[in-house]
């Protein structure tokens, strides 16, 4: 296979990245040792071998277990900084990462510990690497509305460093409207909203993310293709979809990359974007996701550039930063 160095050189933007999903096995082991946490794996190789998933839940079980090594502010700094240095290597100029506070507060790690580590690294990323960023806090949808409200309350002290809220974790059985009232409160606080929808769940969940949660972007959204009316609506309104190709094949949303619908949607005028989701678990960061599309679907340079332009259009960066990136 060709090296596709041009795809690494291409300046890129990432809009769908879970910081906890960027925890590489090497850092997981180092933090386990530093914090005296027991891991159910003997080696980095054994961890990587465990990363075979047949669906979203399979992955989530391992992902939440991995996060147990994150305890101190410095751990969250190191996690975020490692991701940003990877972005620098791959010419990613702007990022809008997600974090899952409930994964940590439910283990007794303070909200401020998580947030302070992350924002200090994002600030260094801006100052030392020139990577601009906006931070998005996600609610875990398998937990209750009440717990989401409690999490939103903790975020109220940090509205200057959180641009929006999102919704992630187990999709099926947890429709967007379960969080309509929490999202309404978030919007009242001036936060933007996004939500995972139409990853494993039906196209109907994309409609309710748009109509009930009033999202600015839909995360994944690939199952929108099952609903022709929805597809036209997405194209007409330029509603962005943050698509994650390697995630979708790793979690068996598509059996093979050659079956992925991202380029079909691009040609239909939908504002699709390329993102890495949980790169430490799914086999690659931004460049690898673009390369996978080049290998399986013959992604052209024109298409690659359109995908990045879509990301700039869909981003929460200010107009000046957007203009700089175009
Ligand atoms: C996730 Cl791929 C995916 N889907 C839903 N929730 C998530 N959290 C982390 N990765
Ligand atoms: Zn995701």
Per-chain topology:
Layout: H1 5-9, E1 12-14, H2 25-34, H3 44-49, H4 56-66, H5 73-89, E2 92-95, E3 98-99, H6 101-105, H7 111-129, E4 132-133, E5 136-140, H8 145-155, E6 164-168, H9 180-188, E7 192-197, H10 203-211, E8 217-220, H11 228-237, E9 241-243, H12 245-250, H13 262-267, E10 272-274, H14 279-282, H15 286-297, H16 301-314, H17 319-325
Bound molecules: 6-chloro-9H-purine and zinc ion.
6-chloro-9H-purine is lined by residues 18, 21, 56, 63, 168-169, 196, 199, 247, 277-278.
Verbal overview:
The chain has 17 helices and ten strands. The strands form two sheets. The protein has a seven-stranded parallel sheet. The chain has a three-stranded parallel sheet with strand order 1-2-4. It is 49% helix and 11% strand. The longest helix is centred in the middle third of the chain and has 19 residues, at 111-129. The chain is of the alpha/beta class and 326 residues long. Bound molecules: 6-chloro-9H-purine (ES4) and zinc ion.
């Amino acid at each position: 296979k060709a090296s596709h160095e041009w795809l690494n050189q291409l300046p890129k933007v990432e809009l769908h990245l879970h910081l906890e999903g960027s925890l590489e096995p090497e850092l997981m082991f180092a933090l386990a040792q530093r914090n005296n946490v027991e891991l159910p794996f003997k080696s980095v190789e054994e961890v990587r071998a465990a990363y075979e998933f047949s669906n979203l839940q399979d992955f989530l079980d391992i992902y939440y277990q991995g996060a147990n090594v994150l305890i101190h502010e410095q751990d969250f700094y190191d996690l975020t900084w490692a991701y940003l240095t990877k972005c620098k290597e791959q010419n990613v100029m702007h990022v809008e990462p997600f974090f899952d506070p409930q994964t940590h507060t439910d283990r007794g790690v303070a909200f401020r510990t998580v947030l302070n580590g992350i924002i200090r690294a994002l600030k260094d990323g801006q100052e030392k690497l020139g990577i601009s960023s906006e931070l998005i806090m996600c609610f875990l949808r398998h937990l209750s509305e009440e717990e989401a409200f409690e999490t939103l309350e903790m975020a109220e002290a940090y509205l200057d460093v959180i641009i929006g809220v999102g919704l992630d974790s187990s999709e099926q059985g947890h429709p967007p409207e379960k969080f309509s009232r929490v999202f309404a409160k978030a919007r009242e606080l001036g936060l933007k909203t996004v939500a995972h929808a139409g990853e494993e769940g039906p196209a109907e969940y994309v409609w309710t993310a748009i109509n009930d949660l009033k999202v600015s972007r839909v995360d994944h959204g690939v199952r929108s293709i099952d609903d022709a009316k929805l597809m036209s609506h997405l194209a007409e309104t330029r509603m962005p979809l943050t698509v994650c190709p390697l995630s979708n094949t790793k979690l068996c949303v598509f059996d093979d990359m050659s079956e992925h619908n991202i380029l079909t949607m691009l040609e239909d005028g939908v504002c699709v974007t390329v993102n890495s989701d949980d790169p430490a678990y799914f086999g690659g960061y931004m460049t690898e996701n673009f390369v996978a599309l080049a290998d399986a679907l013959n992604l052209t340079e024109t298409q690659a550039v359109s995908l990045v332009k879509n990301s700039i259009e869909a981003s929460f960066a200010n107009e000046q930063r957007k203009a700089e990136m175009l």
